[in-house]
Write a sequence for this structure.
């Protein structure tokens, strides 16, 4: 029995995941379709849509990483979020949201409220339906999908949209020997475990990117004043924003490079030219980001893999910048001598008198040292290739042969229409991927502007698919 025959008004589109990607896809699909054209169902265990992992954090130290003026649910309306902030007074009692240059950096959960507020009328009007659960498994019956929900419910759908979040960080192999240690925090989003950190504890943060910065800000807000060591293979620290805004500089798409090496040289050359004009690297990297999808798709697969292997860490710390409020915490801790960044690798671990002893090898050195910490917090970033194991819905689709990992190890492979590529190499006709899980095929797809634009594109593809299905039904009748 198809989803249409099970009592729905029309075709059922089930969106797996109701964070920003899933919420934006539902929002734009609802705007595109005439009333009654389809049931749009978002399966999301959280109480509200639009929050997801990123924007559901209750920690007031966690702020959006770019100015509010660059965050929007609707492409072409760059001030949409900033206008909402002014209209609602959402940050009236948060003086710290205003940076020194006047830019707004609200707490992250405020952005979640903004997205939720725009979906609320569609939910009340039953244009969109929120099923508050998770997908435990998926079965295929003919051309219909049957979603088995974690609460025991079932949902039939004609089309699926995978809008799940990234998988959690994988525990580094050397730390698996201390997996039961009280001082090991494998989940950096576990605020209860973070808040249990003692004021004077010596803390090791494994990873030096955005999540690492968030964790350090959380520890600082909770009154931690002990030593913190942030360690990663390269030791790169996330950069902050430029003091003043400048328009993007550089064109990397006129003759897109087929070589990662040539691309890097062009970027460095453009940064040098910008410096001669009194500009920093920020506007050059902004141009690379805006043109990122074209740049990425021009690179052969072997070169894409080279970028991921050799340049990703360098790109990430320049691309993913931290809010000035968090940067100020890191700067202060470094100046006080209670925060240090190190380029090194962990080669061994053991429990020592209630603490965690680690064997550490500095980058480009053969010597190793043994150091002991009260707390070890893992912030190494998503384990992208674990998505077929850690997400039960995607794992089920993988077992059915309907999805596969992309060839560069960043998520799920998609075709040019945003459809998931099956294990056969052919696209699955009615499974779409929205959000960062598609970036291995698409390219730059992490920032809100890119995710918004891609959600709009996926919504348009689904509308076209629904029209095609409707035409087939009319022809068959």
């Amino acid at each position: 029995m198809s989803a249409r025959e099970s009592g729905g008004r029309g075709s059922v589109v089930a969106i797996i995941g109701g964070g920003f990607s899933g919420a934006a896809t539902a929002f734009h699909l609802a705007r595109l379709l005439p009333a009654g054209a389809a049931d749009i169902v978002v399966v999301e265990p959280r109480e509200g849509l639009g929050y997801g992992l990123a924007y559901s954090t209750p920690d007031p130290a966690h702020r959006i990483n770019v100015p509010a003026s660059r965050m929007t649910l609707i492409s072409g309306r760059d001030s949409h979020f900033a206008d909402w902030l002014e209209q609602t007074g959402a940050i009236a009692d948060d003086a710290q949201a205003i940076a020194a240059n006047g830019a707004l950096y609200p707490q992250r959960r405020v952005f979640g409220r903004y997205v939720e507020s725009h979906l609320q009328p569609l939910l009340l009007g039953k244009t969109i339906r929120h099923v508050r659960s998770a997908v435990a498994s998926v079965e295929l019956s003919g051309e219909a999908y049957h979603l088995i929900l974690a609460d025991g419910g079932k949902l039939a759908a004609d089309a699926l949209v995978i809008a799940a979040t990234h998988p959690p960080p994988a525990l580094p192999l050397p730390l698996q020997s201390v997996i039961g240690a009280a001082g090991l925090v494998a989940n950096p989003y576990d605020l209860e475990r973070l808040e249990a950190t003692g004021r004077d504890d010596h803390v090791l943060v494994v990873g030096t990117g955005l999540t690492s910065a968030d964790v350090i800000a959380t520890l600082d807000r909770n009154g931690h004043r002990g030593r913190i060591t942030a360690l990663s293979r390269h030791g790169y620290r996330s950069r902050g924003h430029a003091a003043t805004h400048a328009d993007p500089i550089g064109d990397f798409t006129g003759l897109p490079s087929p070589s990662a090496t040539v691309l890097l040289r062009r970027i460095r050359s453009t940064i040098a030219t910008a410096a001669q004009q009194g500009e920093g690297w920020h506007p050059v990297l902004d141009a690379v980001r805006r043109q990122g999808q074209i740049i990425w798709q021009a690179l052969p697969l072997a070169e894409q893999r080279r970028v991921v292997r050799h340049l990703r860490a360098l790109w990430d710390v320049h691309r993913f910048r931290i809010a000035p409020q968090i940067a100020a915490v890191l700067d202060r801790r470094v100046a006080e001598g209670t925060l240090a960044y190190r380029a090194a690798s962990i080669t061994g671990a053991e429990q020592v008198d209630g603490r965690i002893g680690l064997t550490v090898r500095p980058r480009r050195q053969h010597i190793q040292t043994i150091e002991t910490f009260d707390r070890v917090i893992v912030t190494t970033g998503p384990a992208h290739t674990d998505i077929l194991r850690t997400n039960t819905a995607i794992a089920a689709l993988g077992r059915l042969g309907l999805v596969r990992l992309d060839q560069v190890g960043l998520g799920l492979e998609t075709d040019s229409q945003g459809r998931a590529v099956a294990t056969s190499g052919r696209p699955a006709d009615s499974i779409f991927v929205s959000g960062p899980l598609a970036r291995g095929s698409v390219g730059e797809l992490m920032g809100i502007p890119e995710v918004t634009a891609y959600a709009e594109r996926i919504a348009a593809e689904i509308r076209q698919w629904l029209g095609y299905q409707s035409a087939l039904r009319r022809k068959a009748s």
Q: What stands out?
A: DSSP finds 15 helices and 16 strands in the chain. The radius of gyration is 23 Å. Residues 1-8 have pLDDT under 50 and may be disordered. The first strand starts at residue 11 and ends at 16.
